[in-house]
Write a structure and sequence with these properties.
heterodimer; A: alpha+beta; Son of Sevenless (SoS) protein, Chain S, domain 2; 8% strand; rod-shaped; B: alpha/beta; 6-stranded mixed sheet; globular
């Protein structure tokens, strides 16, 4: 360590007078800062990186700032215990309180720097760095600042960061253990006292221990029964003198360091006033909880330091929770829903809660048809509760099978379930009973902007404790139905509802889903950024939703051998054609549609 | 140091509170005789060990005083980590000191997570005329955070001994609770080991018998 000392003494030949001159200047500066005057503006170099600085350089600059305050402490300040007086301590004991403030400033600066990073590894390297700084400070006998850095690391907001501490290197940890032993309050700071007593100037001791002793002796003096003779010194006075003398013995300390403007500017920027410090303590702890939540496993709130999971899965947890918490549309008072429906709804929500972590089987849900439209790995779809709320419980098990194997067409949904249809009607009542409901195309319909909006919602949730109520996000009526069939089809309007023939032109490919009595169409994304699955080529928000139960004038037709099928509205004469890739696929679609439409009406089939 | 030399249990108690609420006065009053009669080196000031007999049991108290260092915000953890008891002292004539107590309590609960006995102490009852914090308010608060409550006066030596007796009793109760829990666990472990051994024997004996039959 001696070697370091010599290295640090940049200019040992420099006369001490010039040093003390510069110290006086620095001293004035400090006093200005402490009086809460506007801070001198020193621009911090943009490229300043703490970790790139040598710990000993930082330590030297800290020491240069500490020293003038320490040197100016007067015996009167110490003797009178003026620093304990809440009202007059700043005026009567400016340097004792100045030292305390320095201690707190350093302490907060260390915490703030460590907590500024979201990355565990970076925080760990900062902790290592500060351990080195503390060691260097101790080596140059700045016990005061060294203690400040160590106590910062011992503060609950840093001490509790288990993940970070796990990454701190062993040798640095050992150094830290030694330092904590030195600064332990054990046996009334025995180690610290012994260490301080063996130091030689230059040294800045930790003032706190002396302050406690002084106060104690002072209290004991107050209690003395026998008055002292004039000029006589009691035992306690002697003790007090001894304490003050030992502080004073270090006050002639001079450090032969040169000022480093960059580091100085940086250290100045860490300064805040007294009130700021008080306010900051709470915010530091909050920040600490933010970067490493108490129990990372039990919290749904994502944090940067929890073991890495993709942001996608984290968000989908959120969205599922959110949907499952409102299984019944809020516009219907719960009292008017039959009890068993409510129970069912609860069942559904419980189910979705239990399936929260089973992401795997969601991928298989919409598994594919000829096009291989497998695995909807799309956050927007994760909150489409795949469990059929409106089918009875026994059927729900079946439907799961359907989901798992949707290339085989499922049985039509159970009929005559009056409760379910009542529930259903309530759900569908907010759907406009037009033939095709044209949804306003939303600008934010890609997966990415969707995720962004989810993040936004999440922030809203964190701030307000609830999710924002977005009418369109209340859920589509088809969401309660399982995906029975999916496919990428071309769509073409053959004849409008006004019986006007239009130019037959197939649209771009659409992603079409058959969910219960709903046909849901999704448009292609303009620029698909992620397209691991065919589904991801299409927007998350549906373009059209056709409710076959309300618009029951529709029939599906399919000509043998043709790879397209048509949907006819018998009432208006509107004809829409869908083109598939193969005739067999078209047949499958027609059959599926017919089965749905045969629920409560006759079916026209043209084979 | 006397600590640890005898078999009597040692409890660490920290005195916390705003400056000038009388922490060191309370401690001084409590250890007064020792302080006045013996020569006192600085290493022994502000830290006291005292043997105490409560309910026929002798325990040793290590009392830590933070007086004078209140403004070192971050020193708290160094003091109170590993302590079994904390006295949160406030001045009944100073509302601010009472508010400060609440911060300490919050901090202690976060760090020690209920392992320590908290005792909220209202000091300076001799100045009852200028009282700012009513006893009921403080008692209610102490109850709400699961702490004990006491009032005293270091100046007039009112209830100082009772203070330390109260916290010692509570700490002993907590310690015996923990030790019985531990003893219970260890007993259960030992008995279970024994039963396993027995059942193992019977199993090995029974198994071949069955085969034979």
């Amino acid at each position: 360590m001696k070697v370091h000392h010599h290295q640090l003494f940049h200019n040992p030949a420099e006369p001490s007078t010039s040093d003390s001159n510069s110290l006086v200047d620095a001293d004035d500066l400090e006093v200005i800062v402490f009086k809460d005057a506007p801070e001198p503006v020193i621009m911090l170099p943009v490229t300043f990186d703490l970790l790139k600085m040598k710990p000993e350089d930082i330590a030297a600059q800290i020491t240069l700032e500490d020293l003038p305050i320490f040197r100016n402490i007067t015996a009167t300040e110490l003797e009178t215990g003026a620093w304990t007086n809440q009202k007059t301590k700043y005026s009567d004991a400016p340097y004792v309180t100045g030292m305390t403030l320095r201690f707190n400033l350093i302490c907060h600066w260390v915490q703030r720097e460590i907590l500024s990073s979201d990355k565990v590894a970076y925080r760990a390297s900062l902790i290592e760095y500060f351990i080195k700084v503390a060691k260097k400070l101790l080596d140059m006998n700045n016990i005061h600042a060294s203690f400040a850095v160590v106590s910062a690391l011992l503060c609950q907001s840093i001490f509790r960061l288990k993940l970070t501490w796990n990454k701190v290197g062993r040798s640095d940890k050992q150094t830290f253990d030694k330092l904590t032993k030195l600064f332990s309050a054990e046996n009334n700071w025995q180690n610290l006292r012994e260490h301080t007593d063996t130091r030689k100037s230059p040294c800045i001791p930790h003032l706190g221990v002396y302050l406690t002793d002084l106060l104690f002796v002072k209290d004991a003096m107050k209690r003395r029964n026998t008055p002292l003779l004039l000029g006589e010194k009691g035992r306690h006075e002697m003790t007090m003198d001894a304490i003050i003398r030992s502080i004073a013995s270090f006050q002639d300390s001079v450090y032969p360091f040169n000022e480093d403007p960059a580091i100085k500017a940086y250290l100045m920027s860490m300064c805040s006033d007294r009130d700021g410090i008080k306010a900051e303590a709470a915010s530091l702890y909050k920040r600490s909880l933010e970067v490493e939540p108490d129990d990372p496993m039990s919290l749904a709130v994502p944090s940067a330091s929890t073991p890495r999971r993709s942001s996608m899965s984290r968000l989908s947890h959120f969205s599922i929770r959110r949907k499952s918490s409102t299984p019944i549309p809020p516009e219907t008072p719960t009292s008017c829903i039959p009890a068993h429906v409510r129970a069912k709804a609860l069942c559904a929500s419980a189910r979705s809660a239990t399936t929260r972590f089973v992401k795997g089987h969601k991928k298989t849900r919409s598994s594919g048809d000829a096009d291989g439209c497998l695995g909807i790995d799309n956050t927007a779809f994760s909150h489409n509760d795949p469990e059929p709320t409106s089918s009875n419980n026994a059927a729900s098990v079946d439907s799961l099978d359907h989901i798992l194997n949707s290339s085989v067409l499922p049985e039509p949904l159970p009929e005559g379930n009056s409760v379910d249809s009542a529930l259903y009607r309530r759900r569908s009542s907010n759907v406009c009973p037009e033939i095709f409901r044209m949804l306003k195309p939303r600008r934010s319909s890609s997966i990415h902007s969707n995720r962004r909006s989810e993040i936004k919602d999440m922030w809203y949730f964190l701030r307000h404790g609830e999710f924002p109520v977005d009418e369109e996000d209340q859920g589509y009526p088809f969401e309660s139905f399982p995906v029975e069939m999916t496919g990428v089809l071309h769509r073409s309007l053959v004849r409008t509802s006004k019986k006007k023939p239009v130019l037959i032109r197939y649209s771009n490919r659409m992603y079409v889903e058959l969910r219960g009595p709903f046909i849901v169409e999704y448009e292609r994304k303009t620029i698909p950024l992620v397209a691991r699955f065919p589904r991801e080529l299409f927007k998350a928000k549906p373009r059209r939703i056709l409710d076959l139960r309300i618009n029951h004038f529709w029939t599906a037709t399919h000509a043998d051998g043709s790879n397209s099928f048509e949907m006819h509205d018998r009432r208006t004469g509107c004809v829409v054609a869908y083109r598939c890739d193969a005739p067999s696929e078209a047949e499958l679609w027609t059959n599926a549609l017919c089965r749905i439409m045969s629920d409560d009406r006759e079916v026209d089939e043209h084979f | 140091m006397e600590a640890g030399t005898s078999d009597s249990p040692v409890f660490k108690v920290v005195l916390l509170g705003e400056g000038a609420v009388g922490k060191s006065s309370i401690l001084l009053r409590y250890i007064e005789n020792k302080f006045n009669n013996k020569h006192l080196s600085t290493t022994q000031a502000s830290f006291a060990t005292r043997k105490l007999t409560v309910n026929g049991k002798t325990v040793e108290l290590n009392i830590w005083d933070t007086a004078g260092q209140e403004k070192y915000h971050s020193l708290g953890p160094i003091y109170y980590r590993g302590s079994q008891g904390a006295m949160l002292i406030y001045d009944i004539t100073d509302t601010r000191s009472f508010e400060r107590i609440k911060n300490w309590v919050r901090e202690l609960q976060e760090v020690l997570k209920g392992t320590a006995t908290l005792l909220v102490v209202g000091n300076k009852v001799d100045l009852d005329a200028t009282r700012q914090i009513q006893r009921e308010t403080a008692e209610e608060y102490a109850k709400s955070v699961g702490a004990l409550y006491a009032e005293c006066s270091a100046k007039e030596n009112i209830d100082i001994d009772a203070l330390f007796e109260t916290i010692t009793k509570a700490m002993m109760a907590k310690a015996s609770e923990v030790s019985t829990l531990n003893r219970g666990a260890s007993l259960r472990r030992s008995t279970s080991r024994r039963t396993i051994q027995v059942s193992d024997d019977t199993d090995t004996e029974a198994a071949p018998k069955k085969k034979c039959c």
